[in-house]
Write a structure and sequence with these properties.
21% strand; single chain; 4-stranded antiparallel beta sheet; alpha+beta; 6 helices
Amino acid sequence: MLNEILKILEEDARTTTKQIATMTGSTEGDVKKLIKKAEEDKVILKYKTLVNWDKVGDEHVWALIEVKITPQRDVGFDSIAERIYRFPQARTVYLVSGTYDLAVLIMGNSMHEIADFVTQKIAPIEGVRGTTTHFLLKRYKEDGEILDGGEGNKRQPVVL
């Protein structure tokens, strides 16, 4: 039943315990206990609102930074990853396969701010062998939600 509750909350964190109880065929008390335990056990880490800041007029610059690192003895990639994920600008940090080792999603107020972050914070870390920065030009979908509103293609057709 916990998996069912987690899926419901992941889809909409505003779902009430009463609604979840109805959806799962449980009592509201049981749902509250399971949620409380999941929070205590760090299964539920955070309740989140996904905001399309472009619609509010408060635009941010997003970048995906690929980081190539030399793994450290006894701790591998974890120590450098921890140093990076502790920066508030690092919104998401993943260990990945391929040419680079870490994928770091960061948000800033300008391209210059992101460039400064990469050159002053990430690049100087001992063990970082290189970075590649990709600026996100447009976000179409995030956390399963379409941000564009799905209005479709707004280009004018070409008639020959």
